[in-house]
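Re-run with default settings, no changes from the original entry. Doing this only to confirm the output is reproducible before filing.
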Amino acid sequence: MREQSSSFDVARVVRELSELIGARARKAYQPHYEQVVLRLNRKGKPSTDLVIVRGRRVYTSNRDRPMPSKPSQFAMVLRKHLNNSRFVAVRQYGFDRVIELTFEHGGGQLKLIIELFRDGNVLLLDDEGVIIQPLTHAKYASRTLKRGVPYTPPPEAVDPRQMDRAALDELLDGSEHNLIRTLAARANFGRVYGSTVCSIAGLEEKMDSNSLDSEQRDALEQAIQSMLDELSAGAGAMMWMVDSEAMAAWNEADNEADRDTASAGISEIAPIDLSYMDAGMMVEVGSLSLAYDAVFGSYDAAAFIRREEERLVDSGEDEGERQAKLDRRATQQRAAIDRFHERAAITQELGKSIQDNWEHVESILTQFNAAVESENWQSVEDKLVDVPWIDSVDPVKRTIVAFLPDEDGEPGASITLEVASTVHQNAQRYFEEARSQKSKSKGAQAALASTEEAREKAEKRAAKDAAAG
């Protein structure tokens, strides 16, 4: 599950935040170095926490969360300037991953800038756009972020909402890269939404961008427009589960704790339909904030606890108990990494096997679709007992479980095929799953490295204390 927001995600979150306009800012907290929580109150309604994770995500949440008893310097500045101010406006800078929140009080207006790209920042500005306080001071080639300096946003990114056919043609003709890379980077779609455009348009991701003919460009233009229309007019969000077991666990969860446990099975979230994902593994939720809260809410709500644990390691208090906890955590993290690696290896191999048996899979899909077209799903399902290469069908999900040939040409490994998708798209679905598992593995490895480092510090400190008597 990707941790960083895309421009599409930011656009939907901004629209959701507009529903909070009129709320009063009550208190600001900084439960962790990278996280800021701003509590908002709407008249006659429960308070809502605006959770900001620097450079990654922003969403609303109603979870119970422990908070530090003493505010940080940044939280104190936010409280001083924003307490009891009214939230009056929110906007996205172009189609970039930057959000501007405007608050108003008797002394004028203040703006809270939230940057959601890598190494992004959170900054409070006065009514003239001068930085009152950044979460972290930073200096780049094109801008400086520190107190007393006018805020300069990052260089403006491409806004696909402003891209007409001429601009699209220019983008494609001027690119020396394949289609997915061009859409992801140069058109500001990102990998996930670039893949969605290709899927809707029925275009291969790896084809050269400048090789698209007029008909293919028409399809691409229409696909982009349909995505943007869904983004602007749609509501809610979608979550995709890794498999049927994860789906069952989510559907059976009837409380926050169970949902937090089941959230480990969420592979992707988005404000629009990702057509290349498995539609049968999709769950709709009321907002993108709810989706973010489902995936990251428990982790983010424990931010203060993590900070206190980090301080405990640094302070050297209760080393024996702390070391035992670190040992248990490391063991759990290694087990999780092993599971992610195993799942990634399996799905990667199945995707490759589909490609290696292209003609076989194409034949199964062609014959099955022809049979369904001439009869119906139920009739075809009844006849499958005599078909050795198809194990089962799911009319609801429009999928079949088929077999690939083994070394003797007999039915071997089983694969799930979406009958409405091409061989390439079915293979890509497995590769996407492998990438998702590898991404989770990297996250788990980073967490393990952090745990190992903390454990090493604890061991050295314990040895030093023992030597000192």
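The chain has four domains: 7-145, 160-233, 237-339+438-468, 355-421. The chain has a mean pLDDT of 87.
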